[in-house]
Design brief:
alpha+beta, Type Iii Antifreeze Protein Isoform Hplc 12, 3 domains, six-stranded antiparallel beta sheet, two-stranded antiparallel sheet, 6 helices
Length: 351
Amino acid sequence: MRANTVIMIVLAGVFGVLAVVLANIWLAGQRSAMARTDDVQRDTVVVAAVALKFGDTLSADKLREVEWPSGAVPAGAYKTTQDLLTKDLPAGGGTKQALQSIGVNEPVLATKITGPGQRATLSAVLGEGMKAVSIRVNDVLGVAGFVYPGDRVDVLLTRTVRNAEGGDQSFVDVLLQSMKVLAVDQVADESKDSPTVVKSVTLEVSTKDAQKLTLAAGAGQLSLALRQAAASKGEMTERVTLSDLTGETPDDVAKRQADLAKQAAADAAAAAERQRADDKIAGLARAVDRVGSQIDQLSKVKPAPVVVAAPAPEQVVKEVIKYVEPEPPARATVGVFRGVKLETYDVPRQP
């Protein structure tokens, strides 16, 4: 037998033993992990035993209780089936219904079912302070029937008005953005997955938006634009006219742009004029400061002492020194600031 063959057989045996050892270590780790999981405190949560759709009545045969980690129980979950079916029901009894699709083994939460004595209607799924408003659409305006309950859409308004020259001008505005679709026609089931041509779409809107939709329905033609499922934020929009299709600027827009350009030029000229006036005032203020500093320096200068020559040594003269006050000058110079200009006047001195 060749040496290479012997070496390969030995290496194969070594790797096989190593694989068995590693597998045993991994299995031991899994068993210990499962043992630790068994120590976790558990609770029960009610889940759907069968798939539930919008409007399905809840009953014991459609629900079941499963174990659930106590620290991970979803908000609004029920612990027992009896609690879910009978909690908060009126004295006369009643049933609860699903407000949206609930999959098998999915926890049944309070937000996904009706309240005590309620029915699975649009009023039960409306948010706090929101209203439901329906608008008329067709196979084109309704995005070819591909809008389902739960989708988000933008509402577009198309109008034609008479301009100042007497001609008709058509334009499109984005009236509302990211509106939630509650129902298409009379179907509010979010599990619907087959496109159908509808005649109306019901949207969840605020009171003010409901007023806008009602007014816009008579002012022009409403159409829908389907939004991406994850896109809920609004965006900046602008009016689109027929001139935007050809790239021409409409007369009213051109006039408005010219007025804005003139206003911007006037504002720039006024700002430059204010800057020049500010520069002049600042220059005058600096000149006044320089004059004031010079006057202060002159007032601090002391007169130079007068040196008197000594008398000749051969003459002895007795001198009598008298202190005589000099007479004040008859006139005085007075400076007066007029604004930032200094004017001087020669006036008689008062006794």
